[in-house]
Amino acid sequence: MKKRKSVGLLATIILGLLMTMTACSGTTADKPKSDGKTLNLLTWEGYADPKFVKGFEEKYGVKVTVTYFGSSDELVSKLKGGGGNVYDVISPSSDVAGYLVREGLVAPINLNNVPNYKNLAEKLKNMNDVKKGGKVYGVPFTWGPDSLIYDADVIKTPPNSWKIFWDPKYKGKVSLWDDISNIYLIGQMMGLDKNDPSALYNMSDAQLQEAKKKLIELKPQVRKYWATAGELNDLFSNKEVVLAVGWPLTPKAVNASGRNLKEVIPKEGITGWIDRLMIVKSSPNKELAEKYINYVIDEKVQKIVADVTGYGVANKNAAKYMTPEQAKSIHIDDMDNYMKKINFWQEVKDRDKYNEIWNEVKAQ
Fold first, then answer.
1. How far is CA 258 from CA 175, 236, 250, 263, 323, in A?
2. Which of the four pLDDT bands, split at 50, 70 and 90, describes residue 1?
3. Where would I find the beta strands (DSSP E) of 155-213?
4. H helical segments located in 256-350
5. Tens digits of per-residue pLDDT, 215-269?
6. For the sheet containing 261-264, what is the strand order?
7. Measured between alpha carbons, how far is 54 from 68 in angstroms, rounded to an integer?
8. Residue 10 has pLDDT above 50, yes or no
9. What share of the chain is helix, strand, coil (3-state, %, to 5)?
10. pTM here?
11. d(Cα 2, Cα 9) in Å, to the nearest integer?
12. CA 321 to chain centre
């Protein structure tokens, strides 16, 4: 009897060891299998920072390379200009994501390989522009506003209107993004989206001509049209500008050196963006790309993404790792209400015409 008890005890110990080894090794999906591969990203600035990419490289034994784009038009141009055979993962904004799906430039994502998807904000997952035929083509990553950014050491009273850009006191001290989104801004000043947010993205010829006139009038005030967030950071750091349209990345980066930039929502409103991660249709690394997407939407990694960018992140659970001040600063503590203040970019059906107007403004 004692011997049988010993045999039974030994079997129990061996079973326990096997269970422990299995638990430590994780699920099959978690196992690194991609040694030596390279994953190529085509993203906005800040979306491939070593602070969170390095962890992925180490976990899966791979290398991540990144190419940045400065506008949605540049992203589409790169993809259509041969980039479809170069890049694996891209980060389009909400103004072109649906177009990429419709044009067949991206592949559906197997959400079984992206278990963290279930933890993303429902409001972001419920948007239909990246869904087709019951399949999902884009996973929400970050979101944010196109705010009015100002140097609070120079402008003591927070601006309440975009009209401050035309104030003669700030001639040569304003910066705009080199992008058609400036037309959206003028559309908001014209009150076009009071009852219909999509009106900014479907302006009539007469409305576009009016926007062009306003933007040409603004040109003497403009120090420079910035092409990248880094360029706008430099303009503020060098005190070349005191007002700009920009993203939360800029006050976060510039204020780290002791400056005092702030951002506000003017009374006319603001536009904003939702950035998704998508997989290029011809990517040879789709499985690795899905692992990457799952990794960077993990709640702990999303906290690091917020640290780096200052942007809102898609995984609300990231707030568990933030101070109340950080959660408030990126509006993750009140995401649904804050999002109601933003007119998020939509696809511009006649994008060529918008680009034509913007190019005419710059050529004047």
1. 21, 12, 13, 16, 21
2. very low
3. 174-177
4. 286-296, 299-309, 324-329, 335-339
5. 999 999 999 999 999 999 999 999 999 999 999 989 999 999 999 999 999 999 9
6. 222-226, 174-177, 243-246, 147-151, 261-264
7. 17
8. no
9. 50, 20, 35
10. 0.84
11. 10
12. 20
Query: Which backbone phi and psi does 257 adopt, to 5 degrees?
Result: -100, 20
Residues forming beta bridges with residue 296, ordered by sequence position: none
Hey, what's the torsion of the CAs at 44, 45, 46, 50, to 10 degrees? 100
pLDDT for position 98: 95
Give the span between the Cα atoms of 211 and 186, in whole angstroms. Answer: 6
325: phi then psi, degrees, rounded to nearest 5: -65, -40
Residue for token digits 């009150």? 191
The pair of three-digit structure tokens given for residue 342, joined into one six-digit string = 């933003």
| pLDDT value for 302 | 98
The DSSP-derived string for 341-354 is TEEE----TTHHHH
Residue 199 and residue 220: Cα distance in Å, rounded? 28
Secondary structure element (H or E) that encloses residue 245, with its range: strand 243-246
Q: Which two tokens stand for residue 242?
A: 């005191």
